[in-house]
Amino acid sequence: MDAKTLGRIESVGGHLLATPPHSSDNTSNNSNKTTTTTTITNTNNNIKQIRVEGGKKVWETMDNTDMILERQENHCTVISLNRPKQLNVLCTDIFVGLNRKLLNYVHNDNLHLLILKGSGNKAYCAGGDIKELTSNTRKLSYSFPKYFFTHEYNMDYTAATLRKPSIVFWDGIAMGGGLGVSCHSTFRIVTERTVWAMPEVSIGLFPDVGGSYFLSRLPDSLGNYLGLTGKSITGADCLQFGIATHYILSERLPDLERKLVGLVNSQDRNQIESIIMEFASTPKTPSPLLQEWQLIQKHFANKFKSVEEILKSLESSGTKWGTDMVALIRKKSPTSVKIAFRQVKVGSSMTLEQVFTMEYRIAIRCLESPDFFEGVRAVVVDKDHKPKWNPSTLEQVTDDQIDRYFSPLPLGQELQLGSNFYVTGLHQ
């Protein structure tokens, strides 16, 4: 939903409700509550319903979208994210639709292998649709972030707990939300075109979608480095440090897909890997990150108890690299950087369920603070790359302020994940 499809904004029961042209409103009354339902059809012909029951807004999405393409052949399902002009970013329609397709894969005994990829020639997926998130949060009130992140994290959780073989093609840009739904895949394939990153600290967010879990489990101090700097790495880097399982030239992926789809017994993981290895190769250019690895290990080490200690270590390195890292980190949202540091530190001892519960708390509170909207303005809208963060420096961000992001939400407002998500009906 963008500004054109939202139409006029009306205040209903103390909440903002979008009422676009040609929407249908149905109001029913009983002795206890009034229910207002607004049906919205956006430019992709996806139908959304917003129900206001007794002043409480309930979001529903009915999947009718061509933004996810699926082809089932033999015992394999091939799912393509299909927003190539938008670099296949993930919107709420995709969260809902893809989660349904993943669940169908889990429960369909005739399907034994899933391949996830992106349409077009630029990106697998550039992350979540932050334009949708900012626009609807401003226009439809702060109930929208709850809807957005609840559906995104449940999609990610489903993908992480498939218990069936899955393959992702990280060909081209692979960032943020696109990694959350694929980083737990059985086989993670990179190419010479891969640009892999968790860049959220640049826009006043944090490396979420399970980042607390998978960043904290990377070798040594790599999670701190990627989370605090938001820097991108190559396919060769991903292979070198175990983020990816295989490296294959981009031009060979269609042939690999055809051979995998043709498997008679595609639930045999050894057979799947044997076929992948037929196409795998060694990167022509060694991992650039490997050249900096000793510096990263020393100056982003897990032993440091604060971001300030990391910066002090970098400043004392006497290297241009150290100076550049300090400057880079200080350009990011100070609050986001401190959130990222803590989430990687505590995430190492958490289960995936605990991580998503924690990240949901952080995400909701990030959308209540100004840095996210300022970051989107500076990086995405105006593109001046001169955000005015608040607080403006790392030194001004206190531990008490960061504690608030991690603290439990009010009763009844925590993330509904997995089975609880379906029991409550929030998935509809």
Structural commentary:
Keywords: Hydrolase, Mitochondrion. It catalyses: 3-hydroxy-2-methylpropanoyl-CoA + H2O = 3-hydroxy-2-methylpropanoate + CoA + H(+). GO terms for molecular function: 3-hydroxyisobutyryl-CoA hydrolase activity. InterPro entries: ClpP/crotonase-like_dom_sf (IPR029045), ECH_dom (IPR045004), HIBYL-CoA-H (IPR032259). Pfam families: ECH_2 (PF16113). The chain folds into two domains: 3-62; 68-416, Alpha-Beta Complex (2-enoyl-CoA Hydratase, Chain A, domain 1). Strand 3 (24-29) and strand 4 form a beta hairpin. With 428 residues, it is α/β, with parallel strands linked by helices. It is built from 18 helices and 16 strands. The strands form four sheets. It has a six-stranded mixed beta sheet with strand order 7-8-9-11-13-16, with helices on both faces. A four-stranded antiparallel beta sheet has the order 3-4-5-6. It is 41% helix and 18% strand. Residues 1-54, 56-64 and 422-428 have low confidence and may be disordered. It is globular.
SSE topology sketch:
Elements (H helix, E strand, L loop, with lengths): L2 H4 L1 E5 L2 E5 L4 E6 L4 E8 L5 E7 L2 E7 L5 E6 L2 E6 L10 H16 L5 E6 L4 E3 L4 H11 L2 H18 L5 E5 L2 E3 L1 H4 L6 E4 L4 E3 L13 H4 L7 H8 L3 E2 H6 L5 E2 L5 H9 L7 H11 L13 H7 L7 H9 L4 H12 L2 H14 L4 H15 L3 H12 L17 H8 L12 H6 L4
Helix pairs in contact: 2-4, 3-4, 4-15, 7-14, 9-10, 12-13
GO biological process, one term: L-valine catabolic process
Main location: mitochondrion
Enzyme class: hydrolase
